[in-house]
């Protein structure tokens, strides 16, 4: 996201503003089947294959300060425990005692010197090794070395930890390609998580996520908030391998009113995140959207709770300020309040969209050139599930495979 990135964006944005039709040769995308949002069998395919084979965000380094710091996460329905060891490494385990399955921690976060099951007191160290069994004499042939906590794949990108329930999954940094190169300065920045908020929304997780994959709706859903701040016709969209994508929009000078201009940039913020004239937003497949800003930014993480219910976690990161209270608290409160307003504008449409999809007779929705990130994500969902498993009437082919280009 260096100066060359900014220059290429400006060139491509000028093209987008000037064009009068989609680029020559851009394919007709066809209809996106509504059953992908409403069919229980497709939802089950996602549960079984997409969420259990993907790298999923779990925690930030700033949440796990010091040996014994732990965080308990719900990852694709599985109780996953992240804990920092005495050696400084963060490991992940199922929060399940090897005796009879009771949890070894109960709080959402905290610090522990040992991990002890509250049912029968089996106790594990911070590496997950079983170190104490009450009445061990009563177990025939029990080998403690064979009863460590069940591990979960856990790997780090910058300050962020991701987990994968598939032990055979490709390494995290390969999964993320090419984002580690493009966002290297962001990943290396001294960031700290400072605010989280969650909402439960009555719609399929893709309906909620897709609202952040295009700005086509800005003028109608956000006429007094987002629309005046962006030149949406100049938006540049890039599709990457592995389902990742990016969207960068030109910002109207002086149009924002959330106080961010008075906030300092974090050390190492790249030019694309300090350039006041553009707004980058990246999608990390399958379930993260992050509208980046050199002063601080959120991860929007979408988790399916049911076929028609989604939990959205909004996790904010800012430069690590060290000891004491968050600097510029009043300005941050104003910015967060404005973001809540934008989210409320989006939420108002989502449950009605879900209901209409459940009862619509037309069978599919048509997507345009501006909405190609949506098609790209759906095609990669099918790739991860396995196209042979997806019913033919619900399948989304990778029609845009030849339209991947780096910014």
Task: Present the secondary structure layout.
Blueprint: H1 3-18, E1 31-33, H2 35-38, H3 40-53, E2 56-60, E3 69-75, E4 78-84, E5 90-94, E6 109-111, E7 115-116, E8 123-124, E9 130-132, E10 151-157, E11 160-164, H4 172-176, H5 179-182, H6 184-188, E12 191-201, H7 205-210, H8 218-221, E13 236-239, E14 245-250, H9 271-274, E15 278-284, E16 288-291, E17 297-306, E18 309-319, H10 329-359, E19 364-366, H11 372-385
Antiparallel strand pairs: 1-19, 2-11, 3-4, 3-6, 4-5, 5-10, 7-8, 8-9, 10-11, 12-18, 13-14, 14-15, 15-16, 16-17, 17-18
Helix pairs in contact: 3-11
The best one-word shape is globular
Taken in chain order, the helices and strands follow as: HEHHEEEEEEEEEEHHHEHHEEHEEEEHEH
Beta content comes to 25-35%
Q: Which structural class matches the secondary elements?
A: alpha+beta
Side-by-side strand order of the widest sheet: 2-11-10-5-4-3-6
Q: How many extended strands? A: 19
Cα separation of the termini: 9 Å
The rounded Rg comes to 23 Å
Count of alpha and pi helical runs: 11
Q: Could you estimate the helical fraction of the residues in percent?
A: 25-40%
Let me know the largest β-sheet.
Answer: 7 strands, antiparallel
Question: Which runs of at least 5 residues are low in confidence (pLDDT < 50)?
Answer: none
Mean pLDDT: 93
């Amino acid at each position: 996201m260096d100066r060359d990135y900014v220059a290429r964006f400006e060139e491509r944005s000028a093209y987008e503003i000037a064009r009068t039709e989609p680029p020559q040769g851009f394919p007709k995308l066809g209809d996106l089947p509504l059953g992908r949002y409403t069919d229980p069998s497709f939802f089950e395919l996602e549960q079984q294959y997409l969420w259990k084979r993907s790298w999923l965000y779990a925690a930030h380094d700033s949440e796990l300060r010091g040996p014994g710091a732990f965080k308990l996460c719900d990852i694709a329905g599985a109780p996953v425990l992240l804990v920092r060891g005495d050696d400084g490494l963060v490991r992940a385990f199922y929060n399940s005692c090897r005796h009879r399955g009771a949890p070894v921690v109960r709080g959402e976060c905290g610090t522990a010197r040992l991990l002890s099951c509250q049912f029968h007191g089996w106790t594990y160290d911070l590496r997950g090794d079983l170190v104490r069994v009450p009445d061990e004499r009563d177990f025939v042939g029990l080998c403690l070395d064979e009863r460590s906590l069940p591990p979960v794949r856990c790997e780090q990108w910058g300050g962020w930890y991701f987990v994968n329930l598939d032990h055979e999954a490709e390494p995290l940094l390969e999964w993320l390609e090419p984002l580690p190169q493009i966002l290297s300065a962001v990943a290396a920045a001294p960031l700290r998580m400072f605010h989280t908020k969650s909402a439960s929304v009555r719609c399929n997780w893709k309906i909620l996520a897709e609202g952040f994959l295009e700005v086509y709706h800005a003028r109608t859903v956000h006429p007094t908030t987002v629309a005046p701040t962006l030149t949406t016709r100049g938006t540049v969209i890039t599709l990457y391998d592995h389902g990742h994508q990016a969207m960068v929009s030109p910002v109207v000078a002086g149009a924002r009113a959330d106080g961010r201009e008075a906030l300092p940039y974090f050390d190492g913020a790249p030019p694309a995140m300090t350039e006041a004239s553009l707004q980058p937003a990246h999608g990390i497949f399958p379930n993260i959207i992050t509208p980046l800003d050199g002063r601080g930014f959120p991860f929007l993480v979408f988790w399916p709770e049911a076929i028609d219910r989604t939990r959205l976690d909004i996790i904010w990161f800012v430069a690590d300020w060290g000891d004491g209270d968050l600097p510029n608290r009043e300005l941050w409160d104003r910015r967060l309040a404005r973001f809540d307003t934008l989210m409320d504008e989006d939420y108002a449409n989502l449950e009605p969209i879900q209901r209409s999809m459940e009862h619509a007779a037309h069978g599919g929705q048509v997507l345009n050139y501006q909405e190609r990130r949506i098609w790209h994500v759906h095609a990669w969902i099918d790739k991860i599930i396995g196209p042979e498993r997806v019913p033919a009437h619900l399948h989304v082919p990778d029609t845009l495979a030849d339209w991947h280009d780096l910014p």
